Amino acid sequence: MLGPHAQDAPASRDELGILPRAAHELFRLISEDPSRSPGVQVSVVEVYNNGIFDLLASDGCGVTSGVKRRVLTTHEGQEVSGLTHESVHSAEEFMTLVGAGLQLRARQATAVHSDSSRSHLVVTLTLTRAASPHSTADTRSNQPLPQGLQRPAPQQPALGRSPSVPRRASFVSPRPQALRRVSEQVHAKLQLVDLAGSECAGVSGATGLALRETSSINRSLAALADVLGALSEGRGHVPYRNSRLTHLLQDALGGDAKLQVIVCVSPGQKHVAETLQSLGFGARARQVERGRPAPRKRR
User: What CA–CA distance (Å, rounded) separates 114 from 148?
Assistant: First the structure.
């Protein structure tokens, strides 16, 4: 996620990882039109042993505590209750913040890897922009975010349920229309996910807690494969709730977001079984097709 030279300054821009590349591109796009610059907030969580942990949790003084805090998803699954969101104003601020969170990620040496990740990492950037006092919901929906970013279309809530937060403007209680126009905000979201690799306990030599971690990683990856399979086959029921990982990523997997999967494999002959398994996972992800966002209706 950070690149091959994460501990040192990279030799060239070509060696930057996904996180710094995404951050620099995001703030480059934002800088092209300062008059419409949205606010950027960051959250960092890990899914460890099927629990969700906030890696940016702070103490009462607002300083990162260095202690992970367990948090829970809401009923809809896409939002996390009590999750820390920090504002950033540059790629450098973003990398400093994420770097501090990564220090708390669960890691352990195995017979295969000296610094094996024992959890899935989810870094979320949320873009918000306060609406103009003279704008309406219709005119705001037609104002684009910086080029290269897309705004999720609103999702119609099921009967008796409130709409999920990531797809909607922030909620305000019923007030005069003028006040609502000022309070509402536009949202767009970018999620960067680093999945822990599938693991064979017999090969990695995992025992005790490490064996439990291996089992949890493999179950969550299997649940993710099941979700991708259900989406690619167009099944009526998609088993998002079989894992906290898929529950958390439901909006990105089954919504109208753009989904890209990068599969990391080994060129070594001795890892051919794992390589084929990973490529099969990537092929399944590639088969997922989703419709275009529904057009917004004028009220």
Answer: 38
